[in-house]
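Researcher: Let's run the pair from yesterday's discussion. Sequence first, then tokens, for each.
Model: Starting with the first of the pair.
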Amino acid sequence: MAKNSYSFFQNRGCKYFPCHKGVEVNCLFCFCPLFGYEDCGGNYELTEKGIKDCSECKLPHREKGYDYIVGFLKRKYHK
């Protein structure tokens, strides 16, 4: 995957970079557009108050994360 292409970007100047350890972080989806979906396919847990905790999820930052997210949204909205 080409660095800083349409599907990969890193913001090394961000005060939170890197936000996840152990993965080459793709900052394109800094806030995951799938947060509101229970069936997002990511690795999340629910807090005691029922709020998604996605801090261990690397899905949007992986190499194929862009393709997965765009495909997921297309399936949801182009039925």
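Model: Moving on to the second of the pair.
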Amino acid sequence: MSLRIGPKFGFIATLAAGAVTMIGALLMWQSRDTTIYSDRYREEIFRKVRPGMKLQEVYSLLGQPLGIRPEDSPERWCYSEVEVLRKDEGFVVENFLSPSQCVLFDEKGKVLRVTGARTAVTKGMTTKEVLHLLGQPKNRKPASVMTLHYTAPGGEGLFRGRIVAVDSQNRVSDVISYQFYD
């Protein structure tokens, strides 16, 4: 007994193959890196930037950023572990959607707000009062006064964000690395 394939099946198979090809081409188009990088930016050099470095050291390594933005990011004490999505060659990718318990302070050391789990800490408390209630945090991030942007989006596709946050003493307070598809 032989299997006979009719013309309708061939037409449907051709349409399906065409659809798969178009979807593959669209996915490849969306995944291309459209990131614009600063003149001296190199990923291996960016990975050498660490919290505590002087601003001048960052400029020596990476040169001038594409943009500098004023930042009003308060000091942050976190008491719960942030969900880590991936650790990759010195970079840690955190889940920004995970509700970690953090206390944010203003420049005078007073509580601005609390994120995550409910706690007895309220707006206006001092750092001393928070330490008395919650103890030492698992993670402290100093306040940032500006961010150096070494990349910018260049259109639809993959964007690799590379940012260095700087504190009021002109030291690196945070190194931010992320990527998304637009």
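Researcher: Give me one sentence on the second I can quote.
Model: The chain has a mean pLDDT of 81.
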